Amino acid sequence: MRRSKKSLGWPENGQPSSRHVWKFFRTSASTGVVEHCLRCGANFVERADVRGPVYCHPTRTWMETPPDDDGALGENRTMFG
Questions:
Q1: Phi, psi dihedrals of residue 25, rounded to the nearest 5°
Q2: Hey, what's the torsion of the CAs at 48, 53, 56, 58, to 10 degrees?
Q3: Those residues with Cβ within 8 angstroms of residue 58's Cβ, 6 or more apart along the chain or in another chain
Q4: Which of 37, 80, 25 is nearest to 62 (CA)?
Q5: How far apart are CA 12 and CA 5, in angstroms?
Q6: Going along the chain, which residue ranges are E strands?
Q7: Terminus of the chain with fewer CB atoms < 10 Å: N or C?
Q8: pLDDT value of position 27
Q9: Tens of pLDDT along 17-67?
């Protein structure tokens, strides 16, 4: 059974989290620009993705590195709710 975006707590604006920390990874003729989020490990492929992932779930490694990160997922969600 498929759950609606609303029941999953989808952000009202449906935009990618501003918490992503994008870093250029590479460019190729087939994929275009590929970027990697240092915070959650997600990839963004220019020719395959319309937009980046909505939520940015910080990895354990990221949470150990910058102590000022509160772990929030961004866009109306927190790590625990």
A1: -110, -55
A2: -30
A3: 19, 39, 40, 69, 71, 79
A4: 37
A5: 10
A6: 22-28, 32-37, 43-45
A7: N
A8: 93
A9: 888 899 999 998 888 999 999 999 999 998 888 777 888 888 988 888 866
Residue 20 amino acid letter:
H
Look-up of token digits 């910058």: 66
Residue 79: CB atoms within 10 Å: 11
Question: What token pair was written down for 77?
Answer: 């969600």
Q: Which string of b and e fits 7-46 if b means at least 16 CB within 10 Å?
A: eeebbeeeebbebbeeeeeeeeeeeeebbbbbbbebebee
